Amino acid sequence: MIDNKVLRFFFCTVIFISLLVGLNISVRRYQFETQKNTVEIAVSLRELRELAVVGGESIESLMTRLDKESSLTTIAIEEVTLHDFIESGKMALIKGSEIINMHRVGRLNRTLLSQVYKQGQVKPEYFYLYVSQRKDFERIKKFLKIEFGSDKVKQIKNYHILQILDTREDLVNIGLGILDSDIKLVTQFGFKPLFRLKNTTRLKAGVITSKIMSFYDPVVGSSVLFEGDSVLGYPTQLGLLKEKFEDKQIRFGAVEFFYQKGIKTLLDDLSYNVFRVHSIDVEELQEMSMGKAVNRYLRAAKERSVDMLFLHPYFNSKNELSIIDYNIVFIDKVVTGLIHNEFDIFSVEQFPKQIYIPITPFEKIVLIFSVCTTFLFCISFFKVLSLFNIFTFYLFSLGSIYTLNQFGYDLFISKCMAFFVAVLFPTLAIITQFPQEQVGEKKFVVRFFKSFVYLVKILGICLIGAILIISFLSDIVFLKGVEQFFGVKLSFLVPLVLIGLFFYLRPHRITSTFFVLRRLYYSPVRTAGLISIFAVISFFFILLIRSGNFLLLPSFYAESHLRELLESVFYVRPRTKEFLIGYPFLILSFMFVDEKISRVWIWFFNILGSISLVSVINSFCHIHTPLFISLYRTVLGLLFGIAMTLIYFFLYRLFRSVFLRKLSLRK
What we know:
- This protein is α/β, with parallel strands linked by helices.
- Helix content is 60%, strand content 8%.
- The strands form two sheets. It has a seven-stranded parallel β-barrel with strand order 1-2-7-8-9-10-11. Strands 3-4-6-5 form a four-stranded antiparallel sheet.
- Residues 348-352 and 549-553 have low confidence and may be disordered.
């Protein structure tokens, strides 16, 4: 490192000021999070009807039991379709060609359709809808005329018969709004209705308006969850839908890990109207044990602060209980778990109104300046900086940020600054605190104590970076999950590469990086070096593909049970890569450098050790996770890491003594 005391003092001053600013923002966010400890539990009315049939009960009987025996808050009402009318025996759907063929074999006698046929109005490619009740007929006719156009839907004389041209599959699945009878059924048992709206390929303003007006109540307020792979109005009528939702203050749900076309547009424009939902796919749930499903729902509430848990029912009991009793137990276990974790079970409109102040423009300017200064400080390890270099860098970087801000890229700037912090601070922590000269202390206890102080220092630097990330991503769109930290995998990889490069070159060769790497390229390949590089690359590969919410590599059986055990005992589980790999390598490399570990190989140990620092930063990049959870997980990882270090050292001493004893016996 180039010893520049002025730059070091300037850097420390800027970081201290930014820390005060960041702490202020973090406290505001923490206060915001502590106000919100409510979760809503919802199920589908359509699936409840199916469950009632499987369980041999009426839907009214099932609703009565749910009201008395569970803490269910909300029931999602799907749009009625022609398929629903057919299944309930209120309508018949027959193709014109079927009517003609039925008449040919004499099966239309004494039916209303025979009169239609005799008048020569049946067309073989059309469908004919025969609706028994006038109220249902008027509803179907109204929605189909809005959907297809009045000239495309023809009523046959004064009969309750409609003629329409379409495919059977599309026709029976068209959403016809929310039935008043379904709303009445849900509300009479004390449940709050949640409305599920379907998109259509024939988008018109009237379609969206009629669907919304079929359920909207200005007094009670409404919440919507979109059904299918796209939101209502996608792709051409999203502007109208946004206008309607904003005008009528309709809230809508965004389901975790499930992408719906058009949802991003609504999230960007209506971030204050959104509530976050977690659900397990109904088919996946049938193969999952109840305990595993309950844990997954509880984890979503604890670690990601979702607003609603959408429960699908089991359709096959996995024990001696009846299928309905089994599902009531399932709901009860989810509720009990939430209450045990100090959550309240309320519906969406009962959420308390929260006052929250995110990062202000002045605070953002201060923090951006601190990131630029940190970047300069890191560069100073590789290159001697002049005043002209520093001035030019500030002018270019701050000028570029100002230009982006003027063009409306404010969120992009926040994301970029958070990414730079995630890369810079783990790198800065270890390269500034790891001893660059030989450590003379020989006593194990003293070395272990010093390694603990070293660990606290580098972790403290990383937590300063975490506070800056929290501050940059403090806008409500990040807390709601509308926007997220980008470059997660890259922010994992880049610090490890920089740290490995720094300690491979070692401080006295940093300024000659290009020449050292060039000489390395032309030098003979040694087996030990090749194996170590292969091991590091393989580890990077596994680490990257197993990071995130979806694992591309399966976890081992023992690993899964270890994770579940840790979560059940400690509320949240510490990250295994921190306490099994990261912290032990950090401590051992500090304790045994120049004694048992050569400086030539310290790059290998520090890369593996730095995984814990990168992981700590990554925990705070998950902005939807409450601050308390991230901090608690960090402390757990540190304590477990220290314990695992002692275990590894004990095992090393044990194996070493056994090996030396066997060696002495052979001699």
